[in-house]
Amino acid sequence: MTSFQHGRPLHSGWETMTLWPRQRRLPHGRWLGVPSLLRLCFCMKGGKPRTLAGMLSFSAAFAFLLLAPLASPAQAHFSGVTALEYARELVAIGPRWPTSPGHLKAEAFLREHFKHDQVEEDTFTATTPIGPVAMRNFIVRFPGKKDGVIVLSSHYETNYPLRTINFVGANDGAATTGLLIAIADQLRGKPLDGYSVWLVFFDGEEAIQSWSASDSTYGSRHLAAKWGRDSTLGKIKAFMLADMIGDKDLDIQRETRSTGWLVDLVRQAAHQYGYDRYFFQTEEAVEDDHLAFVNRGVPSIDVIDLDYGPNNSYHHTAQDTLDKVSARSLTIDGDVFMETIRLIDLR
Ligand SMILES: [Zn+2]
Which CATH number characterizes residue 290's domain? Predict the structure, then answer.
């Protein structure tokens, strides 16, 4: 995989800047708009308050005026902190390569988080360079009122060839697994107004020996073929893959085989939050779990940041640890994924 020139580093003071970005619209929240300000001004039209209580309420009103525009946008954001906590739990298990005890624990971790949801465990035997390997995808379904499905996906296992170096895949697998679990927190409850949303946690994305078309993406190739046979693929309106986007220094490439209109919707969602600079500043073709779906004509996107650390030095190394991942990046991801779902529903 190609290493990338670094984009813009995140500056200190980023939280202040980015938790209240230059946004015109907050899709999931509310903010104090001009009409509310006018109403407050009308309340005080009679002149200055004369009593202590009046002065207090006058001061409180001004404090509200000053603080409300800052406080409200914070409520409107996806909780990257929660996503990061889920990632932390998964990383704490340790390496989770196929056939390892850590993999069994990772399966139990997913089972535990979705114990009250509609979960399907899609088990299969992969033919790999080390022989047959038992693998397991997880599919979690949140039904919607519209006929059709939006798939959000990630892989959750770690890299078998890296089993000797304590590779925990904090960004490569764990961060996006945490992201999807936190997205589930937003979807759970009553039926969704739009399309059904299915979360898919793929096994066997990584090569067992060395990356090739036949030694990689075992889980997604298996599931796309299965859903091709039983006609599930025809119901999928959009397939979105999240990979390595917990990176503190977020610069998501435009993956060239992803579907144009879906890339445009993600770009639009990012723009609505003032996140343009984190998305699609560079282009690259990436082989990943989306390809089995792209090849079968499903509208698909790989939302991926392959530029991880100086000269990509954290990618597939023992350096891929939780300190390289940030809640802020996961907030950006979550905001954009949730808004993209809304835009697909409107389409
Ligand atoms: Zn990887």
Answer: 3.40.630.10
Domain final residue, candidates 21, 40, 75: 75
Tell me: the pLDDT tens digits for 244-289? 999 999 999 999 999 999 999 999 999 999 999 999 999 999 999 9
d(CA 247, CA 326): 6
Spacing, Cα 277 to ligand 1 middle (Å)? 24
State residue 333's pLDDT score: 98
Compute the distance between CA of residue 137 and CA of residue 111 in angstroms, rounded to an integer. 11
CA–centroid distance, residue 98 to ligand 1 (Å): 13
Distance CA 308, CA 251 (A): 9
Of 304, 319, 312, 322, which is closest to residue 251 (Cα–Cα)? 304
Question: What is the structure's pLDDT at 55?
Answer: 52
List the domain range (segments joined by +) for residue 200: 78-346
pLDDT of residue 76: 83
| CA–centroid distance, residue 173 to ligand 1 (Å) | 7
Instruction: Answer yes or no: are the C-beta atoms of 111 and 198 closer than 8 Å.
Output: no
- What DSSP string runs through 48-96? S--SHHHHHHHHHHHHHHHHHHHHHHHHHS--HHHHHHHHHHHHHT---
200 assigned to some structural domain: yes
Q: How far is the CA of 108 from the centre of ligand 1 (A)?
A: 21
The reported pLDDT for the residue numbered 21 is: 36
Instruction: Extract the residue ranges of the chain whose pLDDT is less than 50.
Output: 1-50, 58, 61-75
**How far, in Å, from the CA of 172 to the mean position of ligand 1?**
5
How would you class 31 by CB atoms within 10 Å of its CB: exposed for 0-12, middle for 13-18, buried for 19 or more?
middle
Please report where in the chains the tokens 């079968």 appear, as a residue.
296
Count of structural domains within the chain: 2
Do residues 114 and 259 share a domain? yes
Q: Note whether residue 6 is domain-resident.
A: no
CA of 37 to the centre of ligand 1 (A): 50
Distance 310 CA to ligand 1 centre (A): 17
Q: Is 8 within the bounds of a domain?
A: no
Is the same domain home to 187 and 145?
Answer: yes
- Cα-to-centroid distance, 244 and ligand 1 (Å): 8
Q: What is the DSSP letter of 45?
A: T
